[in-house]
Amino acid sequence: MVSNKTQGGACRRIGSILMRAVVTLFMVAILNFILFRVIPGDPAELLLGGARASVTAEQIEAQRQNWGLYRPLFPDQVIDYLSATLHGDLGYSFKFRGRHVTDLILERLPATIALVGLAQGIAILCGVMLGLYAGWRRGGLIDHIATGASLALYSTPSFWLGMLLVMVFSTALGWLPGYGAYSPGATTSSLNSLLDYLRHLTLPITAVALGLIGQYVVVARAAISEVVTEDYMVTARAKGLTNGQMLMRHAFRNAMLPVVTLIALNLGYVVAGAITVEAVFAWPGIGSLTVEALNARDYPVLQGIFLLLGASIVVANLVADLTYGLLDPRVR
């Protein structure tokens, strides 16, 4: 009977989490629709290249008719927008004439995932492990060095780290390229091309990973420092458990809750892209596409990117909420 109640409670909790995620995604979509409708400017003129003096009023009105801009925002346009979004249709780009926004995003997404995804993996592995060790060995030399370096990295903008890396390792030493994803004239179907891609990827990954490592070290150290003072840790030590057993059986899972929260928030950052870092290294990802769309006032592309960003954060938090139940039975 107790087991059935426990299972029922877990199912209700999962259902509640999923419902909140769906409602949040719906609100994100509505807000995304409203945001780009209140921005100053006439979409019909943007479609015509902003050349107001060289087009007639009839041509502007024809654009409004073709794109359905004459229809009321509520409920007609918002219903069309939600229906098209559910079918994966995010509209057409103003800057890239005739290109679907979905195609543009999918074209740039792999480069961003390669950059920030690998940087996240490196940062999680190195930052969490170093933070747990520093917190477990509080007051030691490694703790002081790790804490000081992490606070410095945490407070340093990633784009500044990127520029510093370019100045040192690309301009001064010439060890690594600091621009683009491939060298001029490189093909995309050979081992040499893959190695060239990885060389171009090294500095951007380092710039993103260094900042993230600082975050993970600070959070993991604070979490483990709080856990080691709990009564159950004192009891475990009194039972004769070794430091390794205490860390893995008791401290690790409880200390991971705030770390999981930070990881979930940063996973949204993976999909959105490190805009400033991509701008520094001219990396052809979502971040560079955002800058291009901003400069061209390409609202459909910006709308699609912001929707992707919001959805990725909601999904990441959904995964974090579900993970809490696995790490801490009290949450279930």
UniProtKB/TrEMBL annotation:
Membrane topology recorded in Swiss-Prot or TrEMBL: Multi-pass membrane protein
Major localisation: membrane
Domain spans labelled ABC transmembrane type-1: 109-320
Location(s) in or outside the cell: Cell membrane
Domain of life: Bacteria
The family this protein is said to belong to: Belongs to the binding-protein-dependent transport system permease family.
Protein name: ABC transporter permease
Origin species: Mesorhizobium captivum
Organism ancestry: Bacteria, Pseudomonadati, Pseudomonadota, Alphaproteobacteria, Hyphomicrobiales
